[in-house]
Design brief:
- There is one protein chain.
- The chain is of the alpha+beta class.
- The chain has a domain of 27 residues.
- It has a two-stranded antiparallel sheet with strand order 1-2. A two-stranded antiparallel ribbon has the order 3-4.
- Strand 1 and strand 2 form a beta hairpin.
- The longest helix has 12 residues.
- The N and C termini lie far apart (72 Å).
Length: 74
């Protein structure tokens, strides 16, 4: 058996990944952020949360909570 002929590069690299929050499948390069800039382009260098879920999470946490009727203290 010759494994070199049966294996392709796509079998060794992940070309799509499933988001851990929304459970949808996205393209690895276009759908996920890098965890660190210096990690390179290996599949382990990308996050497990898609870009859409990351933007929702960050904007939700950064939003200031002002109670109704209170004047914000600038």
């Amino acid at each position: 058996m010759e494994f070199d002929k049966e294996l392709e590069l796509e079998h060794l690299l992940f070309v799509s990944r499933r988001c851990r929050k929304c459970l949808r499948t996205f393209d690895l390069i276009d759908g996920f952020y890098h965890t660190r800039k210096d990690r390179g382009h290996t599949p382990s260098a990308y996050a497990y949360e898609c870009k859409e879920c990351t933007v929702k999470r960050v904007s939700k946490r950064r939003r200031k909570k002002v109670k109704e009727g209170e004047y914000p203290d600038w």
